[in-house]
Amino acid sequence: MSKRDELIVKYAADIKDKFGETPNMDLLTKVAIGLGPAIYNLDASKVSGSDDKELQTVKNNFLMKKLGLADSSDLMDAINSVIDKYGRSDKNKHRAVIYYMLAKHFGKESIYN
């Protein structure tokens, strides 16, 4: 199994354990591939739920640029909702899992087709 495949299995386990959902493995794989080499970098592969600058980056670079959503308070509400479900105190919040959950939340899975 490749390193990427190992990470995707880890992400799928997080989605099952933290969100109580069975992940769409095709979508999860595409999200992980879309993150490129960032998934292999310990710092870049995680999202800090307590860092406002980090959350703004998720909003600006993923929700607005990648998913094409208009800026609104709904974006930060959705990010905070995902972070809360993941567990704000959990230090290992994987960026791929957060992006996956946000894409599903906004019904933007087609971006990855």
Quickly describe the structure.
The protein has 113 residues and is an all-alpha fold.
Largest sheet, if any? none
Quaternary organization: single chain
Number of helices: 5
Radius of gyration: 13 Å
Mean pLDDT: 96
Order of helices and strands: HHHHH
Q: Classify the secondary structure makeup into a structural class.
A: mainly alpha
Low-pLDDT segments: none
Strand content: under 5%
Give the number of DSSP strands.
Answer: 0
Share in helix: 55-70%
* Anisotropy-based shape: globular
Separation of the first and last Cα atoms: 24 Å
Structure, described:
With 113 residues, the chain is mostly helical. It contains five helices and no strands. Helix 4 packs across helix 5 (95-105). The chain is 59% helix and 0% strand.
